[in-house]
């Protein structure tokens, strides 16, 4: 992974210089073009990068297998002071009670991340797979 000092400002001036090099020397080999590109990148200035929005709290993760429909399953406890992110291995419904009304909950598609910032503990979340087979639900605290 790049560190902020690895990110360079490779702007229009450097691109123009490379284009001029290619125009002046149309028979450059691929290796010569790559060498010129690497030299231009090495000469470019680092960009100052400030990272923000990260959490000072360490995150926890867990995986839970949930039986297939029509069973509504309460996720097991995991304190989520800043909320949680969950994802499932197949489509599921997410509810806020074990006995939801027909209009409660919402559909979450396989692989979609659901960010819940008002959940204090994962055991406040109830899920039910759309299909009859069991699914895995992955969770990460925020």
Q: What's this, in brief?
A:
With 142 residues, the protein is α+β, with helices and mostly antiparallel strands. Helices cover 19% and strands 27% of the residues.
Main features:
142 residues, alpha+beta, Jelly Rolls, four-stranded antiparallel β-sheet, 2 helices, disordered N terminus
SSE map:
Blueprint: E1 8-9, H1 12-24, H2 30-43, E2 45-46, E3 61-66, E4 73-74, E5 84-88, E6 92-95, E7 106-108, E8 114-116, E9 126-129, E10 135-141
Antiparallel strand pairs: 1-2, 3-10, 4-9, 5-8, 5-10, 6-7, 6-9
Please describe what this structure looks like.
By secondary structure, the chain is of the alpha+beta class. The chain folds into 2 domains: 7-46; 61-141, Jelly Rolls. It has 2 helices and 10 strands, in the order βααβββββββββ. The protein has helices spanning 12-24, 30-43; strands spanning 8-9, 45-46, 61-66, 73-74, 84-88, 92-95, 106-108, 114-116, 126-129, 135-141. The strands form 3 sheets. A 4-stranded antiparallel beta sheet has the order 3-10-5-8, with no helix packed on it. The protein has a 4-stranded antiparallel beta sheet with strand order 4-9-6-7, with no helix packed on it.
């Amino acid at each position: 992974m790049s560190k902020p000092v690895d990110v360079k400002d490779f702007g229009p001036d450097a691109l123009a210089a490379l284009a001029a090099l290619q125009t002046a020397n149309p028979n450059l080999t691929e290796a010569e073009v790559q060498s010129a590109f690497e030299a231009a990148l090495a000469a470019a200035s680092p960009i100052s990068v400030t990272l923000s929005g990260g959490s000072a709290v360490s995150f926890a993760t867990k995986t839970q297998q949930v039986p297939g429909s029509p069973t509504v399953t309460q996720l097991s406890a995991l304190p989520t002071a800043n909320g949680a992110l969950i994802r499932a291995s197949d489509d599921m419904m997410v509810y806020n009670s074990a006995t939801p009304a027909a209009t409660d909950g919402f559909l979450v598609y396989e692989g979609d991340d659901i960010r819940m910032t008002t959940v204090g503990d994962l055991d406040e979340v109830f899920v039910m797979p759309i299909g009859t087979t069991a699914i895995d639900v992955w969770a990460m605290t925020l």
